[in-house]
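Issue 218. Parser rejects a valid record. Input:
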Amino acid sequence: MKKSIFLSFCLLIGFYLHGQESEKAFNSEVFTVQNEERNLSFKSTIWSYNYYIGSQRVSYDTFRNKLNESNVINVNNMFNSGKNISIAGNIIGSIGAFCVGFDLGTRLGGNKGNTALLAGGGGVMLGGIIMYYAGAGKMKKALTLYKDNVATLYVSPTQTGIGLCFNF
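Output the parser choked on:
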């Protein structure tokens, strides 16, 4: 009984820490693109993402509409694809982690565990982790493309003096 209470406590602490809203707790999970009047960011939660324009949390549709303002056609598709891969990796990794945890719990309970379940669960969990980070990387790349292709107006030196530049 003590072992199951301890295991439940460890799982709850893990979920609690992963679901924290503080950006200090998971600073690597926050990716922000800044421009003068634009600031797009997303933050990982336990099963999905929170989306922000500036400091205001917005819905996914509003975030997507902001991404559509870019001159790059594939930014929105790349971001959606990365999001889907990341969430699928999170789910697959959780299934693998459940298999590993189930087998370890069986072994801690004094019964003989299933080595194939332990190894298979570990492999599935590793694959899910790889998918999660590959999807998050694709999302970051889409936001970087968005940042690089937002129209900006600024003054810049030229070969013959100073000029007004418009990038789009």
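Fixed in the parser; the record now loads. Confidence is low (pLDDT under 50) at residues 19-29.
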